[in-house]
Design goal:
By secondary structure, the protein is an alpha+beta fold. Helix content is 47%, strand content 15%. It folds into three domains: 113 residues, Beta-Lactamase (2-Layer Sandwich); 172 residues, Alpha-Beta Plaits; 91 residues, Arc Repressor Mutant, subunit A, CATH 1.10.10. The protein contains 14 helices and ten strands. Helix 11 crosses helix 13 and helix 11 packs across helix 14. It comes from Desulfitobacterium hafniense.
């Protein structure tokens, strides 16, 4: 427990300087082993086990401890089978110091659990990468443990009040196959080397700062916890996120054997909500891959129609879409895909018949006949009604999503 005492002592001395307070740590025999001001060091305050005296100490205040009488507030920080720590102070602010000490102790405890085979003096030498992995695992854990996460933030000297968003990078490492013969001899070591290089590229991004966290999440995801100073104009922060993701795309585009997708979640100013941001980023990637499989970066601007279709009201589907699908299904039970594809090209070209015909490589008259047939079957006229055009566009995207359902990973 020496390393734990060291961390607590450093924390006590740092925070007790803001107001007059003294912190004491006792071993299981009631002897003072740490004192922030050096007083009573080595003294035995209790004849029996100090835990038995906890309630008496709290109720009686500092006078029960044999310290200055004007130290009226006494708060227990931690107690277990090995030691017992409390703080005596003149101010009620002692509660804030006790919280800092407690989170410091919990943080070191987490490091001890994560590194059971390492000597205690080396525990504080945990690499930044390992610490970031622990932070990401704690932030995204289900169920979420706020006290544990806060302790890890304290240890890493991270500000938990900053505005943050999760950037998720989903990676697919390309394989080498010829017909049914796998040519991946030595493939796994190459992938491990590539993973190491990719995380180095991401961490070296020019927009990152010391308050940011970057770590792998599983085998194929990199999670970036990007921090920002709180800004009253939140739209500017989202523009900054776009710029950061575009920068990451440029840097990763040359990575060997790598195909990747990037998206970010909503901004939150509390660390307990960052799991929501992670889920939102994964959702955006899941939606974007269906409509734009060749793109690397997805944001809500580029897939807004697809997001709307993913969360349609049930009445829109049952009352509007299902009747339209039935009308567009021929006698053989086959959906008239050519009508829908032609209509989508017409809508996407801003109702420009010539441009739409060029895009799908059909004659102008053929396209015109298809739109007329769709009008006769559904009663919708995209050429003269914006609402009809919107309904048809949403229907087409909805059908595409239903045929390409993507299961979101936990």
């Amino acid at each position: 427990m020496d390393i734990l005492w060291y961390v607590l002592e450093e924390t006590i001395q740092k925070y007790s300087s803001f107001f007059e307070a003294t912190a004491y740590m006792l071993d299981r025999n009631g002897t003072v082993v740490i004192s922030s001001d050096g007083s009573l060091l080595g003294s035995k305050l209790f004849r029996s086990h100090p835990h038995a005296n906890l309630n008496r100490v709290i109720e009686g205040g500092a006078k029960e401890l044999g310290v200055a009488q004007d130290f009226l507030y006494c708060v227990s920080v931690m107690q277990n089978d090995m030691f017992y720590c409390y703080i005596a102070a003149k101010s009620e602010k002692v509660a804030a110091v006790s919280l800092c000490c407690q989170t410091a102790a919990i943080a070191v405890g987490e490091l001890l659990v994560a590194n059971p085979d390492r000597p205690l003096p080396d525990i504080l030498k945990v690499s930044e990468g390992s610490r970031h992995s622990m932070l990401v695992d704690s932030l995204l854990a289900q169920p979420y443990n706020h006290q544990k996460t806060l302790a890890l933030f304290q240890t890493a000297e991270l500000d938990g009040t900053l505005l943050r968003s999760i950037i998720c990078i989903e990676m697919v490492f390309q394989t080498n196959q010829y017909f049914n013969i796998n040519l991946n001899l030595g493939y796994q070591p190459i992938i491990e080397d590539a993973r190491s290089k990719i995380i180095s590229i991401v961490e070296a991004n020019k927009y990152f700062n010391t308050q940011d966290i970057c770590a792998y999440r599983g085998e194929n995801k990199i999670v970036i916890v990007k921090s920002f100073i709180n800004n009253h104009d939140i739209s500017k922060v989202y523009l900054a996120l776009d710029k950061i993701c575009e920068s990451l795309c440029e840097e990763l585009s040359g990575a060997y054997l790598l195909d990747f997708k990037i998206a970010y979640g909503n901004l939150y100013n509390t660390i307990s909500k960052l799991r929501c941001s992670y889920e939102e980023a994964k959702e955006i990637i899941s939606i974007g891959k269906i409509e734009y499989p060749d793109k690397n970066f997805y944001n809500v601007d580029s897939i807004i129609t697809d997001i709307i279709c993913r969360f349609l009201h049930p009445q829109v589907v049952n009352k509007v879409f299902i009747p339209l699908i039935k009308r567009l299904t021929n006698s053989e039970g086959v959906l008239e895909h050519n009508l829908l594809e032609s209509c989508e090209a017409f809508i996407d070209s801003c109702m420009n018949l010539n441009q739409a015909a060029h895009d799908i490589m059909v004659h102008r008259n053929t396209l015109n006949n298809r739109i007329a047939k769709l009008n006769s079957l559904t009663g919708l006229d995209p050429a003269n009604s914006f609402q009809d055009a919107l309904i048809l566009k949403l229907l087409i995207v909805y059908l595409r999503q239903q045929n390409n359902l993507t299961i979101i990973e936990p």
